[in-house]
Specification:
Layout (H helix, E strand, L loop, with lengths): L2 E7 L5 H16 L8 E3 L8 E8 L1 H4 L2 H4 L4 E9 L1 E3 L8 E3 L8 H10 L2 E5 L8 E2 L2 E2 H6 L9 E14 L2 E8 L5 H11 L4 E11 L2 E2 L4 E2 L6 H7 L4
Parallel strand pairs: 1-14, 3-12
Antiparallel strand pairs: 1-3, 2-3, 4-11, 4-12, 5-6, 7-10, 8-9, 10-11, 12-13
Length: 232
């Protein structure tokens, strides 16, 4: 069994949880041990986030993970104004900003426009980026200082969907390597307040769409997995 499997990752699951779940199904169907079954993904989603995860099944597909990880992505983002998070998302310690201003809708739109195009980002300390051979989030959790160099990313577009203070929802199409949590924090600074990502849903990766993804559940069968496989 081999091919591309599109999965709608639920909140609370890690990307590895999804890979492991599907690997066990495929291994059982092929009469193999999970450790001998090739299943991988083309880019993680944080546990709090939901949406499209592209899984690769079989050796011929998993070896192309690096190539597919470079594809652009689109997200539905919910930004919470007036507070920050130690991790940039709902899983960290939420700290209310002192004297936070309430921006107007016009100011929100203007701030979004500032970030369209090629920009520099400093990825969050709570990320999987390696710093001196160690994952940044492991160093951060251990209370160590994490220094990450800024990198260039491209924001293709930013479109405001709704604004009801303190919540802003917007859509964005970004290059690979863009950290939405950092984008939201930087938007907060541009608006003279604090901000964190309270919800995140990935809708596309390259030409792959969430519309064609299957849902992970206890009822998921190997027949559903097999019938949902795509080729490259």
């Amino acid at each position: 069994m081999q091919g591309v499997l599109l999965v709608d990752k639920p909140a609370g699951w890690t990307s590895f949880d999804v890979v492991n779940y599907v690997r066990k199904l495929v291994a059982a169907a092929e009469g193999k041990k999970p450790k001998n079954t090739k299943v991988g993904h083309t880019g993680t989603l944080d546990p709090f986030a939901t949406g499209l995860l592209v899984l690769l099944i079989g050796k011929e597909y998993t070896k192309r993970a690096g190539e597919l990880s470079k594809l652009d992505k689109t997200y539905e983002v919910t930004m919470q104004l007036g507070a920050s998070s130690t991790t940039g998302d709902p899983e960290g310690e939420i700290i209310a900003a002192v004297g936070a201003s309430e921006p107007s809708q016009e100011e929100i739109k203007a701030a979004l426009m500032q970030f369209v195009g090629e920009i520099e980002q400093i990825p969050p300390a709570f990320s999987a980026i390696k710093v001196n051979g160690q994952r940044a989030y492991k160093l951060a959790r251990a209370g160590q200082e994490v220094v990450i160099e800024p990198r260039k990313v491209t924001i293709q577009n930013l479109k405001l969907d709704a604004y009801h203070y303190p919540e802003v929802t917007f859509m964005t199409h970004v290059s690979s390597g863009t950290y939405i949590r950092t984008l939201v924090e930087d938007l907060g600074k541009a608006l003279n307040t604090a901000a964190y990502t309270s919800a995140l849903r990935r809708t596309t990766i390259g030409s792959f769409s969430l519309d064609n993804a299957i849902t992970i559940s206890k009822e998921l069968s190997i027949e559903t997995v097999a019938s949902s496989l795509q080729s490259l």
